[in-house]
Amino acid sequence: MEFRTENLTISSPAGELESLLWSTPPDVHPTLAAIVCHPHPLFGGTMHNKVVYQTAKMLRELGQPVLRFNFRGVGLSQGTYDHGRGETQDALAALDFMAAQYPKTPLIAAGFSFGAWVGLRAGCTHENVAELIGLGLPVNDPAFEIMYLQTCRKDKLLIWGDHDIFATNEKRLTLAEALRGPASGTIHVVTVPDADHFFTGRIEEVTKAMRNWLEERYPELGRETERD
Predict the structure, then answer these.
(1) What whole-number percentage of the chain has pLDDT above 90?
(2) Neighbours of 215 (CB within 10 A)
(3) Which helix H or strand E contains 58, and what residues bound it?
(4) What residues are paired with 176 via a beta bridge?
(5) Which pTM value belongs to this model?
């Protein structure tokens, strides 16, 4: 399948957000459509981050459209950093854009690190989102409040490295147990051995875990690309 690469802007409450869309041909009706949110803006996070790029690439290989974008104040995006509050609005704007581009198509809200915290929060409240993917969700820092996930009924895939300095094993286990209640939807946790927060040298294992989870839930994924 031939994807189009579209450099565009989407509107958020802070102004225009620099974005990149890998879109499917007009006659293709994808199974899912996704956004991928990048790491912390104050520490060099952009939509070109390696984990974000590889996540988007995996979704494209499955034949699904995917949007990456820079949060407010990053790259050419307007506005300034807003401690996650405004960035959640940015993620919601990105989800609204994909919902308009692909009506009646279930959405994935995915993100890495800070982007996981923001993306999952936005995804929990957006009616079109069916799946949540959080990579390296920073569970150690109390500034990143995450227990909203206890009442989020969307299905979740959470992936960490076992040497993630921002997510100790104790914190990961505590969160996973807290999210196994009836109000939380299903949760699948993957721990990548010998991997740090950035999944250095282990990114293929991360993308394989995401692919396996999605293909198990949506067996039709990738069939269009296989036919090509």
Answers:
(1) 82
(2) 13
(3) helix 50-61
(4) none
(5) 0.95
